[in-house]
Amino acid sequence: MNGLxxxxxxxxxxxxVSLAGLGLSHLALVDxxxxxxxxxxxWTVLRLSALVFLIFIALSLFTLGRxxxxxx
Length: 72
Hints:
Blueprint: H1 2-33, H2 40-71
Helix pairs in contact: 1-2
């Protein structure tokens, strides 16, 4: 059960990182909307945030699958 606990903790930590990514994505999109002159940093933030979201969703589904197996 210790491996599952670690996986749950990792998923929770990645969830908090995803929340931070959501805030940074919002700020980047506001800059893009306002037409800032150099948008390379903003687009990089959006790409990294999308990657974090993808990893978080995949890890969450994998963790929930393992929890479901243990509950049966």
